[in-house]
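queue> holo job accepted (3,4-dihydroxyphenylalanine)
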Amino acid sequence: MDDLEALKARHLVAVADAADEDALEAARLAALGKKGEVALKMRELGKMTPEERQTAGPALNALKDELNAAIAARRAALADAALEARLRDEWLDVTLPARDRRAGTIHPVSQVTEEVTAIFADMGFAVAEGPQVESDWFNFDALNIPPEHPARQEHDTFFMHRADGDNRPPHVLRTHTSPVQIRAMQAHGAPLRVIAPGRVYRCDYDQTHTPMFHQVEGLAIDRDISMAHLKWVLEEFCRAFFEVDEVELRFRASHFPFTEPSAEVDLRCSWADGQLKVGEGDDWMEILGSGMVHPKVLAAGGIDPDQWQGFAFGLGIDRLAMLKYGIPDLRAFFDSDLRWLRHYGFSALDVPTLRGGLGG
Ligand code: DAH
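queue> job finished
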């Protein structure tokens, strides 16, 4: 049995010395493989007397077990060492500043929302907010759109389901930012000067319509507000937003249930060579809806229409962004395509201000 001890010692050393997985496998095969030394010894058992076999058999089995255990231990040690090495090599300093080329960008919708907010803030308008899931009273009734009014159909409304047996009118995804007028009036009363930027929803989808888009609502209420104030505010806004010295607006008589009188507003522009130039040329571009707040709307907001009056307007942020920054397809706004976002996005550090420049 002395040669078994020597064989064991030799193989244990080979296993312990194996520097990697391959070397360990070679050592395993040399000892325990089909043609390994232990297998050859096993074969010798057949030639032994039963008495010899009785001691040699268990001894060989014990040797096999011992070698297998040594191999498993060595394999675990090698795996630990490999992990240690990886942790050492792939060490990452998470306190390092982000690399420039990986920096995210500000979406044109966010950028334009910031620009619009900065311009109106400068004219004394605060920002008001309302929920995107809105009751149909705020979205329609309070804005002088009763249930039978045809404007309800035109809004392509998304309705939220009520539980079975609940017969109250369903909530809606707000179809415009106008309900925020009512909420702001109820919360603050008059006088009031607010804008309400935010998401709105309509069931519509093509090159110029997406089921979710963005509007800004404007509302000014005081004792003697007139259409002239509305016109001045909108002209100021267009001059600042399009960064031109002169703009010309055209008020076209229109109809909205929540304003009386109502006007759609067009901006003089030229599209020569496919380039938009504001304030010159012979084209007119519709940019918003507006009017004097309907007495019923003031009353729904808890404001006495005999004491107060005001103007309101609503414009589409996405369309403003497309116009100002030359973006052709609205649908791309919401595709989350990184190449598009890098191309049309804005630096997070360029916060739009009237004095520092709005952007672009
Ligand atoms: N809410 C209207 C829409 O989504 C836009 C609008 C028109 C808002 C006239 C107003 C307004 O405040 O006076 O189509």
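queue> Residues 2-89 form one domain.
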